[in-house]
Amino acid sequence: TVIPHKSSENDGVVEYQSCAGGLSTSKFGNNYKDTFYVTGLNHMDTTFRNGDALVVNSQKPVKWFECLL
User: Fold this and answer.
1) Cβ neighbour number for residue 44 with a 10 Å cutoff
2) Which domain of life, per UniProt (predicted)?
3) Chain centroid to CA 23: how far?
4) For the chain, domain boundaries
């Protein structure tokens, strides 16, 4: 089944705006070292089950989480 969305800016599970928490998009970077991180992932990828991508820095949820600790 397809989850309906009001916006085309979604990852298939939730809309971007719900994740941004009202913050401006200018505050977000695409590297796991950025405090606010727009990934090349969807919500299912961020369950850490498959780890990080080997090369692409916008697909490293585990590294990003480690930077928060």
Assistant:
1) 11
2) Eukaryota
3) 14
4) 24-68
